[in-house]
Amino acid sequence: MPRYVTFLRGINLGKRRVKMDTLRECFEELGLEGVDTFIASGNVVFDHPGHADRSLEEAIERHLESALGFEVAAFIRPLSALAGLSEPEDPASAAGDEFTPHVIFLRSAPDAGLKARVSLLETPDDQFRFGGREIIWLRRGRLSDSPIEARELERALGGSGNTMRNLNTVRRIVAKFEEME
Length: 181
Known about the structure:
Number of helices: 7
Strand order of the largest sheet: 2-3-1-4
CATH topology of the largest domain: Alpha-Beta Plaits
Number of strands: 8
Number of domains: 2
Strand content: 25-35%
CATH superfamily of the largest domain: SP0830-like domains
CATH class of the largest domain: Alpha Beta
CATH architecture of the largest domain: 2-Layer Sandwich
Structural class: alpha+beta
């Protein structure tokens, strides 16, 4: 049975605290199987016999809002697709340049307008690569030191739903759950 990963936006930030056991139970209540979580930041892995599409994301979002009392955006990706997420063209060079890749998960593939708006934010220390329904943000130094403010990035993304993870976290999810298949 195919495995999927749901990346939830805004879990365990501020007053939006959720125990991972509670999160697992919410997914199991939807009839999803093999549910597991990875670190306490809203990464949920599950098995699903069908295609996990936007309708399943919406069902998860509705159920979580009802169960938790606040809105949660869900972004589902097949576990197998995460292994192939874009790396910098030259990973050794990017690592040597001290770039840290972060993945911005989107609802749909970025169009030309979104790509142009996000590209305008680039600096020598902040570069963006586009692929599929993700944007890879290469940041030299800490993300918190970037001159790009969250509201600027949100504006550039044009209100499209999104959530972000460090690519290292995504790699760790893939490594842990691929070996469990």
